[in-house]
């Protein structure tokens, strides 16, 4: 007997996506604690790491977007320190990109379900220099947590000066081997110092129970990760389920088929979507979404740009690598979420020398309720500035929302 596939509207799919990401949860009524952190992480599943620090580092912002002002030390302690009273909760690994994710998911990251990444190109170097690999591991064991620069000196490996015009990827043999060993899970991050990754051995970073857990097969890991993707996305196509953890396509497709067969996933049709969609049985679809949030470019709600455009009607591209004269909106642009819709975008910079949050550009979406969007955006920018320990917000003159926003901020 063939089961009936339910059809839902795009507005319901959008509300399901927002609820899955935590935007239907009530905000904390008091100080944000580790319990709140765990609740938010249970929604988003992982935090993407990125080196850009023009406003705030990417792994801190999604929690602010969902919880409001909190002490970033909550994340630092969860990711890069351990004590009997406050055990390590997060570990670094390649997932969507370089990410922080729950320590229990470490075995899933290294079971063969995730597709190969750029660091796999260093495998010939590892195979041709096994002695250097042994020396790196011995040095990490002796010195860790330790940075790649210190390891270079300790191992005394041959290095090449970076020629003029060479890209950031022109790395020494030791750095390349560290990246490869990190990618395959032979090394992980013990801690970070000024955002520099300090390598250490997994057995000194991960809890014993995680290290002793049975290693899943690649297909078992793919099924587990697809279920986590479905939980985080609410309603999603197979490529979107695959993208959340960057699964290998064949693994993801097989996992979706198996989960449908076991009724752990169900198929739905979303009006206007060309591809079939999938969700967990019992996925929550609130009647309405309220509240506001600024979203960084690497927030999991918006990091898959085609999905963002399809769900929100919001075309979003990061313009960091676009020459400044050709940028449409700015260098580091935050979409503004208001009552379940993306209604504006702002190009932000934390000017710590001047002590202000600078809005270098502010742009409203078509049909936005300008007076309300302006008031809510101004209020949220003030909250963000306070969280970043800045004294205020200064609006520039780029964009159709710049003038009204500057007036609201006075």
Question: Outline of this structure?
Answer:
The chain has 410 residues and is α+β, with helices and mostly antiparallel strands. It is built from 17 helices and 13 strands. Helices cover 39% and strands 16% of the residues.
Note down, in words, how this protein is organized.
The structure is a single chain. This protein has about 400 residues and is α+β, with helices and mostly antiparallel strands. About 40% of the residues lie in helices and about 15% in strands. It is built from 17 helices and 13 strands. The strands form four sheets. A five-stranded mixed β-sheet has the order 9-10-11-12-13. The chain has a three-stranded mixed β-sheet with strand order 1-7-8. β7 and β8 (about 275-280) form a beta hairpin. The longest helix has 18 residues, at about 370-385. The radius of gyration is 22 Å and the shape is globular. About 40% of the residues are buried.
Q: SSE layout and pairings?
A:
Blueprint: E1 6-8, H1 10-20, H2 34-44, E2 47-48, H3 61-67, H4 73-80, E3 90-94, E4 98-102, H5 106-109, H6 123-128, H7 130-143, H8 148-155, H9 173-184, E5 188-193, E6 196-200, H10 202-205, H11 208-212, H12 218-233, H13 238-245, H14 249-261, E7 266-270, E8 277-279, E9 292-294, H15 305-312, E10 333-338, E11 341-351, E12 356-364, H16 370-387, E13 392-395, H17 402-409
Parallel strand pairs: 1-7, 12-13
Antiparallel strand pairs: 2-4, 3-4, 5-6, 7-8, 9-10, 10-11, 11-12
Helix pairs in contact: 12-13, 12-14, 13-14, 16-17
Individual helix count:
17
Question: Level of helix content?
Answer: 25-40%
**Average pLDDT:** 93
Q: Tell me, what's the shape?
A: globular
User: Which H/E pattern describes the elements?
Assistant: EHHEHHEEHHHHHEEHHHHHEEEHEEEHEH
**Strand order across the largest sheet:** 9-10-11-12-13
Low-pLDDT stretches are: 166-170
| Proportion of beta-strand residues | 15-25%
Largest sheet: 5 strands, mixed
Question: What is the radius of gyration computed over CA atoms, rounded to a whole number of angstroms?
Answer: 22 Å
Q: Based on DSSP secondary structure assignment, what is the total number of beta strands?
A: 13
Kindly report how far apart the N and C termini lie.
65 Å
Quickly give the structural class.
alpha+beta
């Amino acid at each position: 007997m063939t089961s009936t596939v339910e059809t839902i509207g795009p507005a319901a799919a959008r509300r399901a996506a927002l609820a899955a990401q935590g935007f239907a949860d009530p905000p904390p009524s008091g100080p944000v604690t580790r319990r709140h952190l765990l609740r938010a992480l249970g929604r988003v599943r992982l935090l993407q790491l990125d080196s850009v620090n023009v406003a705030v580092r990417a792994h801190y912002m999604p929690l602010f977007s969902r919880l409001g002002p909190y002490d970033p030390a909550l994340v630092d302690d969860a990711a890069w320190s351990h004590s009997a009273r406050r055990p390590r909760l997060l570990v670094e690994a390649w997932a969507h990109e370089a990410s922080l994710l729950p320590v229990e998911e470490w075995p899933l990251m290294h079971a063969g379900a995730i597709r190969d990444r750029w660091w796999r190109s260093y495998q010939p170097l590892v195979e041709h220099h096994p002695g250097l690999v042994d020396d790196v591991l011995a040095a990490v064991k002796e010195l860790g947590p330790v940075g790649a620069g210190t390891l270079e000196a300790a191992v005394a490996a041959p290095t090449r000066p970076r020629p003029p015009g060479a890209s950031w990827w022109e790395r020494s043999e030791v750095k390349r081997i560290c990246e490869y060993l990190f990618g395959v899970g032979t090394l992980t991050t013990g801690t970070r110092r000024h955002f520099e990754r300090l390598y250490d051995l997994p057995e000194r970073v991960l809890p014993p129970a995680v290290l002793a857990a049975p290693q899943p097969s690649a297909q078992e890991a793919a099924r587990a990760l697809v279920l986590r993707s479905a939980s985080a996305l609410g309603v999603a196509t197979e490529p979107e389920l695959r993208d959340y953890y960057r699964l290998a396509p064949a693994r993801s497709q097989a996992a979706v088929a198996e989960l449908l067969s076991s009724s752990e996933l169900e198929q739905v049709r979303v009006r206007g979507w060309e591809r079939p969609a999938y969700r967990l049985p019992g996925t929550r679809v609130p009647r309405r979404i309220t509240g506001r949030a600024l979203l960084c470019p690497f927030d999991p709600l918006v990091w898959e740009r085609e999905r963002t455009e399809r769900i929100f009607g919001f075309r979003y591209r990061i313009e960091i690598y676009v020459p400044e004269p050709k940028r449409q909106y700015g260098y580091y642009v935050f979409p503004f979420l208001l009552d379940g819709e993306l209604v504006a975008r702002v190009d932000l910079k934390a000017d710590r020398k001047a002590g202000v949050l600078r809005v270098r550009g502010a742009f409203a979406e078509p049909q936005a309720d300008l007076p309300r969007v302006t008031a809510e955006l101004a209020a949220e920018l003030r909250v963000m500035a306070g969280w970043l320990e800045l004294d205020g917000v200064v609006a520039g003159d780029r964009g159709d929302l710049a003038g009204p926003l500057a007036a609201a901020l006075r």
